[in-house]
Design goal:
Chain lengths: ~350, ~475
């Protein structure tokens, strides 16, 4: 069961990260809540979402969005306009001052069981504040975040110590491609943490600048992670540079520009966490061949992969075949939660 | 009051207003109104200033109690729109009711804490205990809110039924839950309907207290604003001004927080300013680099602060209220609009002169007509100076032109290099060429000094040329020309 791995990994927070929309994140969330209830998982679940800017898109593809069914005691942070879609008895605990396009984020406690719709903060900083508020309300609460993997906001960023990656047919019409993309993401998540001595060297200077080089000394760059920043950075890389660190999102184009301008062989690239690296499979392989050592400042423990063989565009894969193909590439537990809990997801 | 945003920034007014530590949304609104007190509102202004002074005096003696108030301020949210909605008969939602409850509690806490503090006469907060109790029907004292079962037996019944059903759903196999969810949906509708009825009743309770709620918001706004003003006056040395009937300004050791902070960073100190202004013309002369502009801005800033109901930064301040203030600074925006600086200046003067016909103003002109030829420029300045003689408005004018003064005008001069050992300074500069500007600034005496008899405009400009090492032969030529 998924819930067991929360316990065995000693996690206090978890993000459910979708590789694409309609990969069944909500179903996974529902499934976890069910399991938690069934096994008597003791911490109070404290649920929110981050960067649910995909709401409009779902309307476009007109897919039915399953609602989340929670039990009494659960803490929920959602936008004010979404409260009317929450059909349970709500005890309002706090207004947060965090605003979204659908109103201020409000925290309530479920006084009964029922369906909730969650639209939490869009930014990482605000999600961190929500987490703090949850902990203020209940110091033992378990922070559960429904998050999309997007350039704008990422669920895992220093917010949770564990993650479940949700993937499925919505990702690509070719199953092979789905497998390839998913396994690349799994590999990124498996990137080890930075060496302690390097961390001590770079943590402080990196807190005030977005890019940093470590060689004979430390060089910092005061630019955003734009195209020109990569070029500027490449110019400053010398043979004695052994480590490159970046805060924020790293994209394909950033890396290719960097590779075009500097020799990265044998160097170390440090990113904040796995959700900050947005590179395709091909580039990821090239980086590996360059012997580039990719490290993270914070490790997010990937405790499971969930698959949804159905896509809203009508494509669907054989669930077992997809699972087998993924299993060839990783030992991380894989769950197909899509079919089992259909009845719990009320169609709206 | 005719000051543009840029001018307010230039004279250091925005700097001061930004330093006000407002804590509540209501206080923020009051601050942003920027209410200016008019000459006919002297009593109201006096009340406002006295309220600030009252907190100023308590800032130290009751520091802890004031700090306690600020803690409550942090919990204040803007619920004015909800109260007004309730007043119009609307039904509030759960979050709005939650906010009403928090607000009522905060008022209770403020009332309790205000017992430790002296408040201005007539200041009052209305207790919202009745409303708070309505929103806490089970008397738990917990500061959260939901539509409590205690509000209605019907609600209690529906919820009990729903709870039992939800338990059955949980016990039922997943594939057999669908019909139960259908049943639950019906109960949800019933529950929501009952909750709505209760919210409607509670909204009427809010409506009943609407005037008290709105009054309290206003009271919090004042309290917050007063305390912020008092704190700022503490930080930069504010003083209770004496409001005069006459259109006069008397400042002793006036200063400007913006200049003070700026100079502190440069490890220099601000030369405080004494000045007495009466209706008619006052002329300020003095060397370049002598701080004429700073003096003018400091006067203007402190006069503005009083009009805004704040304590001016001075050791002593006595002044009357003006219908308007006008400032012609060293650069203004109209120039960007395509006019020459001279043209823009004249257009603005044209407008303000119209106003002085019916109103009493403070006009501060920093080197007017500087952009035109000296012969005509001098005539313009002289004409302006004469024009205001015997007028009700106060004209404060800084100029480089000489032969402006006439009997009846007040004349101030920046002391400049008066009393400075010029040769010693010159040799000092030989060694520290790079720091020459700083050294001159340190030696310069920025004080304004009333000039009683007709005196020649000092030749400080030539001094500065010499000190900054302009070609010696050229300096010889210049001094022969003088």
């Amino acid at each position: 069961m998924l819930i067991d791995s929360l316990r065995s990994n000693n996690l206090s927070s978890l993000a459910i990260i979708g590789m694409e929309k309609n990969v069944g994140k909500t179903t996974v969330l529902n499934h976890l809540i069910q399991e938690a209830k069934a096994v008597g998982f003791t911490p109070t679940l404290a649920i929110t979402s981050i960067g649910r800017d995909g709401e409009e898109k779902d309307l476009v593809t007109s897919t039915m969005k399953p609602k989340i069914y929670v039990y009494p005691g659960t803490l929920v942070a959602t936008a004010r306009d979404f409260l009317k879609h929450c059909d349970l008895t709500k005890e309002i605990l706090a207004t947060t001052g965090i605003s979204t396009s659908v109103g201020e984020v409000v925290i309530f406690r479920a006084k009964s069981a029922g369906f909730v719709e969650i639209a939490g903060p869009s930014g990482v900083e605000d999600a961190r504040r929500i987490k703090d508020l949850f902990l203020e309300i209940d110091a033992d609460s378990f922070y559960l975040v429904d998050g999309a993997l997007s350039r704008k906001s990422t669920a895992g960023h220093f917010l949770t110590d564990g993650a479940i990656l949700a993937t499925g047919a919505a990702l690509d019409h070719s199953m092979a491609k789905v497998v390839e993309k998913t396994l690349t993401m799994v590999e990124i998540f498996e990137s080890p943490e930075i060496e302690q001595e390097d961390r001590l060297l770079i943590e402080e200077p990196l807190s005030t600048s977005r890019l940093l080089l470590l060689g004979e000394g430390i060089t910092t760059l005061e630019t955003d992670l734009a195209f020109t920043a990569a070029r500027e950075l490449a110019e400053k890389i010398t043979p004695s540079t052994r480590l490159i660190a970046a805060r924020g999102v790293i994209t394909d184009s950033f890396i290719t520009t960097l590779m075009a301008g500097a020799d990265l062989r044998g160097k170390t690239l440090v990113i904040e966490d796995a959700t900050r690296l947005f590179v395709g499979t091909d580039l990821w392989r090239r980086l590996k061949r360059l012997d580039l050592d990719i490290r993270v400042l914070q490790k997010i423990k990937l405790i499971g992969l969930t698959i949804n063989p159905f896509s809203p565009r009508g494509i669907h894969f054989d669930s077992v075949a997809l699972e087998d193909a993924l299993r060839q590439g990783t030992s991380i537990p894989i769950y197909d939660v899509g079919r089992k809990d259909a009845s719990i997801s009320k169609r709206t | 009051m005719l000051l543009s945003a840029k001018e307010r920034k230039d004279i250091g007014l925005e700097y001061v207003l930004d330093k006000l530590q407002i804590m509540t949304p209501y206080g923020e609104k009051r601050k942003n109104e920027r209410r200016l007190y008019r000459p006919g509102e002297k009593e109201l202004l006096q009340e406002e200033l006295e309220a600030v002074l009252l907190f100023y005096h308590q800032k130290e003696s009751r520091a802890y109690a004031l700090h306690d108030l600020e803690y409550e301020f942090c919990r204040v949210k803007d619920i004015q729109a909800s109260v007004e909605r309730a007043k119009r008969g609307a039904t509030l939602d759960e979050v709005e009711l939650f906010e009403m409850k928090v607000f009522s509690r905060v008022i209770g806490e403020l009332l309790r804490k205000l017992k430790e503090i002296e408040v201005p006469q007539g200041f009052k907060l209305y207790s919202l205990e009745t409303l708070e109790k309505r929103l806490d029907p089970e008397g738990t004292g917990i500061l959260t809110f939901y539509i409590y079962d205690a509000y209605s037996e019907e609600l209690t019944r529906i919820r009990k039924e729903k709870r039992e059903l939800e338990e059955r759903i949980y016990q039922t196999k997943e594939e057999e839950r669908a019909p139960l969810f259908e049943q639950r949906a019906e109960l949800v509708v019933q529950e929501e309907e009952e909750e709505r009825k209760i919210r409607k009743e509670l909204s009427r309770d809010v409506e009943e207290e609407a005037d008290e709620l709105l009054h309290n918001m206003d009271a919090i706004a004042k309290l917050d604003h007063w305390i912020a003003k008092a704190k700022l006056a503490m930080a930069y040395g504010g003083v209770m001004p004496t409001l005069l009937h006459e259109s006069e300004i008397h400042l002793v050791e006036a200063s400007s927080p913006m200049m003070e902070d700026y100079l502190r960073e440069e490890l220099a100190s601000f030369q405080k300013l004494d000045i007495d202004l009466c209706p008619g013309t006052t002329v300020v002369t003095g060397a370049n680099m002598g701080g004429k502009s700073v003096s003018l801005k400091t006067v203007l800033l402190n006069v503005m602060l009083v009009h805004l109901g704040m304590l001016p930064f001075a050791k002593e301040a006595r002044l009357g209220l003006f219908d308007f203030v006008f400032y012609l600074g060293d650069d203004f925006e109209d120039v960007k609009a395509g006019l020459s600086s001279f043209g823009a200046e004249i257009l603005r003067l044209r407008e303000v002169l119209k106003r002085t016909k019916n109103e009493v103003g403070l006009l501060v002109l920093d080197e007017p007509a500087r952009g035109t030829n000296p012969r005509e420029g001098r005539a313009i300045v002289k004409g302006l100076s004469q024009h205001f003689m015997g007028e009700k408005s106060v004209l404060l004018l800084a100029t480089h032109f000489d032969q402006i003064l006439e009997p009846g005008m007040v004349h101030y001069q920046i002391r400049g290099f008066e009393g400075v050992d010029f040769e010693a300074l010159k040799s000092q500069l030989l060694f520290e060429e790079k720091k020459s500007l700083e050294t001159i600034r340190a030696q310069m005496d920025y004080r304004l000094e009333p000039v009683l008899e007709e005196r020649e405009v000092p030749k400080d400009a030539l001094h500065i040329c010499t000190l900054l090492g302009l070609d010696e032969e050229l300096i010889q030529t210049i001094s022969q020309l003088l």
